[in-house]
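Q: I'm writing up a methods section and want to include an example of the input and output format. Could you take the sequence below and give the corresponding predicted structure tokens, formatted cleanly so I can copy it straight into the document?
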Amino acid sequence: MWIHDKIVGFFGLNGIAALLASHQVSLHSLLTLQGIEAVIAPLFPFLLAIEAIFLIWVNRRAPGRLYQAYKIPVLMYAVNIVIAGLVNLNIFFWTQSYFSKLAPFTGTVRIRWFIYAYIVWELSHFVYHWTCHKVRLLWVLHAPHHAPQHMNLGVIFTAFFLQGTYATFIRTAICSLLGVPLELLFLCMVIDGCWGALIHFSEELWPSGKFGFFIDRLILTPSDHRVHHASNPEYLDMNYCNALPIWDKLFGTLRREVPGVKPQYGLNRPQKPNSFVDMYFGEIGLLWRDLRAANSWKTRLLHVVMPPGWKPSVKA
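A: Here is the clean output for your methods example:
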């Protein structure tokens, strides 16, 4: 049953299974919040399967390339599933329950409140994402997501297991404190989770990563997220939002892909090829090395809270 539940959960079929079990599948039920979430959830796993099949065909004469592209994401997904099952923090429900009581107001389940909720959700995602890039202790949790050197939908599974705990706490706290009701928060999470996965489309499957016309100005496309994952100096630490570029525009972190400047994926340091240990624990090891080499507690604290790459100044 555990394996069955994990498979159903992975393919996002929980919502559809619940509707089928209730014998209430109809157009009206599909237009409810539960119905919308049930329809959206399986979209990413379906496209992941399509991408994998497409890449198998493209790399049919060099199967090792596909193995290298998916090896680390699959390993990280498996490890995180096991660890998350043991930890079982229930951080979302605790955070939502606590911070919603502090909110000065709470929205209702209406279209206008959904628009408000999604803008607030993007703000919460921006805060979570920006801090992961600017605070080294948080970067060691987020760095595994930037470690893969090939962009594909499997990259969505690459992360240190505690990154999800931190992301859940920050995003849920901000949304709840700013009056996003639980029902709309769930809907935002489903939409964001689906779109946040789809923007990792491989370049082989979607070379341009753009929609064209005016749509590219309104939302963040796979091309924009490739910029975020790139280690090129022109692209470093840009595009923190997931779907709407509102907060990136406001805070000056929006960068579109430059013609002729192909994104180079991976961490901005030498990496051991296809090493799970280096991708998952490498940044933790480097932080520990700097902490041991520091000559004062102040320097150790700064190593933890300053951005990645920070070094203490050398006095003449």
